[in-house]
Each structure stands twice: as structure tokens, then as C-alpha cells.
Design goal:
By secondary structure, this protein is an alpha+beta fold. It is 20% helix and 40% strand. The strands form four sheets. It has a five-stranded mixed sheet with strand order 3-9-8-5-6, with no helix packed on it. A four-stranded antiparallel sheet has the order 2-1-4-7, with no helix packed on it. A four-stranded antiparallel sheet has the order 10-17-12-15, with no helix packed on it. It is elongated and about 90 Å long.
């Protein structure tokens, strides 16, 4: 490349010198007729041809040199709010925009540290675009707040000092974070010869929700109802628990004094339920009854989800 540029410069200098000499000779001879003029035109034309040829060679060499440069390679790493790695770009991966990366809503860290320039170049810029939004960011590593559950498309564009670029895309499914609604009930229960005592055991109604305050559909991913005495039971006393409601009638077995009884459910249907603590034998007792229902907001386009992140 440098040699051809030097040749072009030398040719231009020779061209100028020859043109000057021809002009001088023509002046000394007084413009000796048409033969001298034709000779000058012929010599000038030859010089112009040489100059054009060298210029074309230099242009071809320049174009060929740039076209041989390889663009950088863009790669993406994603860590969720816990710091867990949930995605790293695989070489020549064809499914980056078809198989979603799934993780819980919250801040996420996006890194282009695995990206690299080639042929001795250096990456000069990293540009991120997240849709919908759009959310725009620049830098090798950025932290973005993806607290709204949705399907997102992330695009990273890297550019090197040769002005060559590469782009990598990624599909994200940001899932809702499960949340728990808890209710605590306390009271006194009368011991009886049977678990269903006389007078009747205390009852505590509770409701499993179908929607949240914003009207979004809720999925129940788990429910737990437990009862335990708040004091010490007599050695012969047992405390138990019964839960009834929508297509449900479940009871615990007694386990002896001072041991909490628990009923657990998955996929519990929305509806109204009643929790009934029970006490067998002995004296009356105080108790604490806890109802905990774990919900997951259902977001259109994200499926049911299980509220957990998955690496891809």
C-alpha cells in the first residue's frame, strides 16, 4: 500500500517535470509547427495514461485492503438481580431470537465483555437497545431495570476503529416475581372428646384471590395453612386442622402436644375457604393459625411461568 502511494507521488512529480520540459522546448523552438504540437500532445497523453493507471492501482489496493478487514464479533452475557448468569451468547447461535431467556423481574446486568475485535482493530463503542421502550444505553457493561414483566428484545451493536460493526440480538421473557399474601388468626379452642368439639370449634374464613388490584389474573403456585398452640399442651392433648372450601375438605392428623400442624396445597382454585383448628382431650388452649397463599401474576405472552429464572 505504502509502496503504491509512493509510486503515485513519483509519477505525478515526473508528469509535472516532463510537462514543464515540453513547454520549455516548445517556447525555445518558437512552436515549430504542427509536428511539435503533435509530439507534445502525444507525450502528454502518455504521461496522463501512466498517471491514470497508477491511480487505479492505488485505488484497487486501498479498496482491497479495507474489504479484507473482518468486522468485530458481538456477544452478550446477562446476569439477573441475584447475580446468577442467565445467558451467554453461543458462537453462531441461530436461536437467540426464537428461544427466550427467562428470569424474574428486576434489575439485570448486560455485558459485552465477550465481544471482540479482529485484525488488530479495537472496539470503540457498545450500544444497547431494549424494546419495547425503547431503553437506550451505552457501554461495555450496563445495568437496566426490567421490573415490568414483559417480552423484551435486546440488541447490542459493537463498532470498531475501522467503522465496522456487528449486531447481536436476544429475546427475554421477564417473569413476575411470586408474592405471598399472609393472614394470621389467633383464638382459644375448647377441648372435646372428639376433634369436632362441643361447642363448635372456632372457624376462620379466608379467600384465595383470582385477580389483583390492577385486575391482572393471578395463578396460585402454592398455599399453606398451619396451626400451633401458643402455650404448652398437656401430654395427652393433640391439636389438628381442617380446611374446607371449593372442592376441598382436607384434615391433618394429630401429632402430639406443641407440634404445629400444616396443610399445603399447590394449584389451589380461587374461592372461599374455612380453616378450623381442632383440639382433642385435656383443657382449653390458645392457638395461632396462619394462612399463606403464594401468587404469580399471569402476563399475556409469557405463559404461566413458575417465577424462576432459567439459563439459556
Amino acid at each position: 500500500m505504502q509502496a503504491k502511494l509512493s509510486l503515485l507521488l513519483a509519477t505525478l512529480l515526473v508528469s509535472g517535470a516532463l510537462t514543464g520540459c515540453l513547454a520549455g522546448i516548445n517556447t525555445l523552438t518558437g512552436g515549430a509547427g504542427e509536428d511539435a504540437a503533435r509530439s507534445e500532445d502525444l507525450d502528454q497523453g502518455s504521461i496522463d495514461d501512466v498517471t491514470d493507471n497508477v491511480t487505479d492501482d492505488v485505488d484497487d489496493a486501498t479498496d482491497g485492503n479495507l474489504s479484507d478487514k473482518k468486522p468485530p464479533v458481538a456477544r452478550i452475557r446477562v446476569n439477573d438481580a441475584t447475580g446468577a448468569l442467565v445467558h451467554e451468547t453461543k458462537i453462531d447461535a441461530a436461536d437467540q431470537l426464537t428461544i427466550p431467556v427467562v428470569f424474574n423481574a428486576g434489575p439485570a446486568t448486560f455485558s459485552a465483555s465477550d465481544s471482540n475485535a479482529r485484525d488488530g482493530a479495537k472496539i470503540e463503542s457498545y450500544e444497547w437497545v431494549v424494546e419495547p421502550g425503547p431503553i437506550l444505553a451505552s457501554g461495555r457493561t450496563v445495568t437496566l431495570d426490567l421490573s415490568k414483566p414483559a417480552a423484551y428484545t435486546v440488541t447490542l451493536t459493537v463498532k470498531d476503529n475501522n467503522n465496522l460493526t456487528d449486531t447481536q440480538g436476544l429475546l427475554l421473557h421477564v417473569m413476575p416475581v411470586p408474592f405471598v399474601v399472609a393472614q394470621v388468626f389467633t383464638g382459644s379452642i375448647t377441648a372435646g372428646a372428639e376433634y369436632i368439639g362441643v361447642p363448635a370449634n372456632p372457624t376462620h374464613p379466608f379467600t384465595v384471590l383470582a385477580t389483583n388490584e390492577a385486575g391482572s389474573t393471578l395463578k396460585v403456585v402454592g398455599a399453606k395453612v398451619s396451626v400451633k398452640p401458643t402455650g404448652t399442651l398437656a401430654a395427652a392433648q393433640d391439636m389438628a386442622l381442617r380446611v374446607t372450601g371449593t372442592d376441598l375438605d382436607e384434615s391433618t392428623d394429630s401429632t402430639g402436644s406443641g407440634v404445629a400442624e400444616t396443610l399445603s396445597f399447590s394449584g389451589l382454585a380461587a374461592g372461599d375457604y374455612v380453616a378450623e383448628p381442632q383440639l382433642y382431650s385435656g383443657v382449653n388452649a390458645e392457638y395461632e393459625l396462619v394462612v399463606e397463599v403464594t401468587y404469580l401474576e399471569v402476563v399475556e405472552g409469557l405463559g404461566g411461568g413458575d417465577g424462576h429464572g432459567h439459563a439459556h
